[in-house]
Structure formats: structure tokens, C-alpha cells
Specification:
The complex is a heterodimer of chains A (265) and B (66). Chain A has eight helices and ten strands. Chain A has helices spanning 33-43, 85-97, 119-131, 144-152, 174-183, 197-206, 215-218, 223-243, and strands at 12-14, 17-19, 23-26, 47-54, 74-77, 103-106, 135-140, 159-160, 189-191, 210-213. Chain B is globular, with a radius of gyration of 11 Å. Classes of the chains: A alpha/beta (265), B alpha+beta (66).
């Protein structure tokens, strides 16, 4: 407790490692490295995702890594682009060879239109990568049975989607995410499709352990302000969850007293 | 000699090491990760390996992503 008697936000623990922020951010689609950095900083995030791609030999440009303070942020490489387990495993190993800690956001998305995660290839890749010593954070459909399999395979979190990547449609999968939260023994990170701080707050109110957003922060005229908005949304949602939301009712229950009315009875 | 570089045919100096090739391309070795003929190279292999005719080299880096 601090001097105001307010409990500090409880820590997020993934694979035995403590984090103060429950908001993870992606680094894609920003209009500039400056915008990306500003959003990351304002978000208070401690975990940021990156992707792996071929260098454009004819136009190498700047490395974006120099804009990410490795003392401040845990770099979480993703396997975006992988269409099957084999491609995902290859990307994970490349990331590790680049000197990253062996944390991997596993993304296996064979369909380019909806970018939905392939459940079978994701489970396959999780099994291989866990055996290979990785901390695997698998991006997955909001399927509670799959979540159990991934957990049993040794995933350190499960990351069900709220809606397809980049759609900003919010927590479309709320009922199934609820079940996953109820049943999971590892942290549940809602990843993809969250477009507004209210979506993030909703996920946190339900009991999600963290959320991951990217498009919502990049696709706005003020990424830094949006980063801060999401930070507040995630904190608000977590506090509400810890405080305990009141039940929903059908019938009205008056907030003001039912006696002493100023009228003839 | 000809190699395949990032999926495309590329003409390079005979007996180039990978380090020499990266210098020619103006790429910092600590910014990239390398895969030669489907084998991921560690840091010292990256510096010292000599390239041969027909080699398949992938030069990969971190970029923004979600």
C-alpha cells in the first residue's frame, strides 16, 4: 500500500518474470519510428513485438531496433508470415540467433485475408518450440479446448484473438474468451482486433491478464495520446476486476431511498 | 560467382566471405541474422564463412510488427 492507502496495480507474471504493465504493444504500421517510440513510451508497455523479414538489399534503410531501448522493453519477436509450423519454428530460431531472449510470439496464419491462426499448426509449433527451450506465447483462435492443449504443451500464456488482426472490431469473441479465462492456468492475453481503450478495459474487466494492441495505436492521428489512453483503459479494467464488478440485474433497484418522499401517500 | 540472395540471383566476388559481402551491401553484421543453405549461422560463423557458387543466403532483420 502506498501512503494514500491505494493498492498498487498487481504485477503480471509470465514464465516467472514480473511485469508492471498489462499492456503489450506491437511496433508495426506506424508512420515513423518517432511515432512508434512515442506510442510505446506513452503506453507504459514493457513488452513489445517485432517481426522478422528479409533485408531489402537495394534499399536497406535504418534498422528499427535502434529505436527500441532494450533495457526498458522486452523484445518479443513474432513469427508473422509463417503459414505452417515449420515456417514458424524457422522464424523463432532465427530470432534467437539474432540474440533475443528465447521468448516468441507464435503466429501461424496461412490465410492472408482474415489472418486467423491455424490451430493445428500452432499446437504443433508450440510443442516443438517448448522442447527447444522457448517461452512460447501462442496467438490462437478463442477456443477453450485448444487453450488447454497449448497449456499442456507448455505455452507460458495463451493469446486468444478478440477479432481478426487490424480490424478494430473489439472483443467479438467475448463469450469464448470468458471461458478461457475461467479455465486457464497460465496468463490470458487478449491479442488482435482491439481497437479502442474501452475494448481493452472490457477484456481486463472480464479477468484477462493482459492485452496486446498494435493497429489501434498506429492507425490514429496521435499515437502517443492513444498509447496513454490504452494505458488508462487497461489499468481501469484491471482495477475494476480487482474491486469486483456488481451484478447485472433485470429489474431496477433504486439508488436513492424509498422512504420520506415529499408527496401525499 | 552466382549465389541466391534473399530469393534472387546475385553476382558476387569469388571467394567472398559473408562479412565482406555485408560490407559491400553496407549492412552492419549485428543488425542482421543469416541463414545459409537453410542453416542459421551463429555470430562467428557469420563473420568467417566463405561463400560458394550456388549458395542460398538469407539476410534477415527485425522490422515493425504486431
Amino acid at each position: 500500500m502506498n501512503t494514500k492507502g491505494i493498492k498498487p496495480m498487481d504485477s503480471l507474471i509470465i514464465a516467472g518474470r514480473k511485469f508492471n504493465s498489462r499492456l503489450m504493444v506491437g511496433t508495426g504500421k506506424f508512420s515513423s519510428n518517432k511515432a512508434m517510440q512515442a506510442a510505446m513510451e506513452a503506453s507504459g508497455s514493457e513488452i513489445v513485438t517485432v517481426a522478422l523479414r528479409r533485408v531489402d538489399i537495394n534499399n536497406p534503410g535504418d534498422s528499427m531496433l535502434q529505436h527500441i531501448d532494450r533495457e526498458r522493453y522486452l523484445l518479443l519477436p513474432n513469427t508473422s508470415g509463417a503459414r505452417d509450423a515449420e515456417e514458424a519454428v524457422r522464424l523463432a530460431r532465427l530470432a534467437r540467433a539474432a540474440g533475443c531472449e528465447p521468448w516468441i510470439k507464435l503466429e501461424v496464419t496461412p490465410d492472408p485475408y482474415y489472418l486467423l491462426p491455424d490451430p493445428i499448426e500452432t499446437l504443433k509449433a508450440t510443442e516443438i518450440l517448448v522442447k527447444d527451450g522457448f517461452n512460447v506465447l501462442p496467438y490462437m483462435p478463442a477456443d477453450p479446448v485448444l487453450a488447454r492443449h497449448l497449456e499442456e504443451a507448455g505455452a507460458v500464456t495463451v493469446m486468444p484473438l478478440g477479432a481478426p488482426i487490424g480490424t478494430n472490431r473489439g472483443l467479438r469473441t467475448r463469450d469464448l474468451v470468458n471461458i478461457i479465462i475461467e479455465q486457464a492456468n497460465v496468463p490470458v492475453v487478449v491479442d488482435a482486433g482491439l481497437g479502442a481503450p474501452s475494448h481493452a478495459a472490457e477484456a481486463m474487466e472480464m479477468g484477462a491478464d493482459a492485452v496486446l494492441v498494435n493497429t489501434a495505436l498506429a492507425d490514429t492521428s496521435d499515437p502517443a495520446m492513444m498509447g496513454e489512453a490504452f494505458k488508462k483503459g487497461v489499468e481501469a479494467g484491471r482495477m475494476a476486476y480487482l474491486a469486483g464488478l456488481g451484478p447485472q440485474r433485470v429489474q431496477a433497484e433504486a439508488s436513492s431511498p424509498l422512504t420520506g418522499f415529499l408527496r401525499e401517500e | 560467382m552466382k549465389i541466391e540472395l534473399n530469393g534472387n540471383p546475385q553476382e558476387i566476388n569469388d571467394n567472398s566471405t559473408i562479412e565482406e559481402l555485408l560490407e559491400q551491401l553496407d549492412l552492419q553484421i549485428d543488425r542482421v541474422v543469416l541463414e545459409l543453405n537453410h542453416n542459421i549461422l551463429n555470430a562467428s560463423e557469420s563473420r568467417t564463412t566463405a561463400l560458394c557458387e550456388g549458395d542460398k543466403l538469407e539476410i534477415i532483420e527485425f522490422v515493425g510488427g504486431g
